[in-house]
Amino acid sequence: MSRPNILLITTDQHHRSVLGINDPAVRTPNLDQLATEGTVFTRAYCPNPTCTPTRASIITGQYASQHGAWSLGTRLLDDVPTIGDVLRQAGYRTALIGKAHFEPLKETAEFKSLESYPIMQDLEFWRKFHGPYYGFDYIELARNHTCEAHVGQHYVIWMEEKGCKNWKDYFLQPTGSLTYIDQHRDAPLWPIPELYHYNAWIAESS
Description:
Number of domains: 2
Number of helices: 8
Radius of gyration: 18 Å
Largest sheet: 2 strands, parallel
Mean pLDDT: 90
Structural class: mainly alpha
Distance between the termini: 24 Å
Order of helices and strands: HHHHEHEHHH
């Protein structure tokens, strides 16, 4: 019997109320189909309120007190086994496509990072580097949420290959505050054409 393919899908910044299965006014047909055909957990608890610790917990099965990424600005320890390591040992080829955020946006002497400035936007580096990374043989990464200015890595390379040479126009400062919404209140929240959206890139690359 052949091994089954394993696909782990995560959504970013996604509260349980923003699902069609919980509110008919919300349109999430693909997620709703997964929920209808699969299992829905109604008493699941997030191990940490911030991004990096929770992401690290998902791929390690450990609490933040164990895997090292205890807050934003920290990083997942190199010697902690991940689901990628476990699957590789079982004979799988592993890949991670999309946002990792296992390392900080700002590198420090204590916390080195491939997901920080300036290397994040060194496209020549990312054209050559596809892993391994935290147990995954092959990676294609993006660092941003929607219109945030800290965009780069493989996602930008893909946009350029698709003909979006002006990609910087869609990722503007200020990042990390509500000021952007205040300044662009009368415009679409993120006017990027749908064919350049990172969801299109993730779907195509996966």
